[in-house]
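Marked as duplicate of an earlier ticket. Keeping the data here for the record.
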Amino acid sequence: MRTHKLQLATLAVLVVFVGLMVGLKTVESAPLTPPTATVTATAAPASTTKYVCTKSVAKIQQCVGANGCTTQQAYPCFPYGCDPTGHTCGETCSVDSQCAAGAACNASSGSCVPRGPTCADSFVILEANGSKYSCGPYKCVAGHCQQQCVEAGDCAPGYSCNAGRCAK
């Protein structure tokens, strides 16, 4: 009898549960309606990639609308200058102006090659980057300042050679 009561109790719980489930299914709710609102979509500004080369430096730039451009990558062209389009580095040369500052064109090979310092005049060095400085009171020879003299001509005007040194 006890088993019978337990089965009846289990059955009763099951009936109540099923009844609840059926009741839940029959409960109707009001349909959901989306709120009414006006949404204005704005398009993102167009983004473009730009390739520029100035002063022997090539750059890849990202440009967004009226916000201007930001450099994403920059790389030097040395020993070459910028190509004629102004978009990237040159790859050959026929004249020095196609090479970066501090380089010269070897026209026979079509290559820009770095150059060392030279003498701008008898007493001034011209560096490959274009800067100049005086060797005074010593003479400039083959792009270098002498450190001693042998004769008066090795010294700047107003100096004389005395025991290997230019002196006033």
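See parent ticket for discussion. The CA atoms of residues 56 and 77 lie 5 Å apart.
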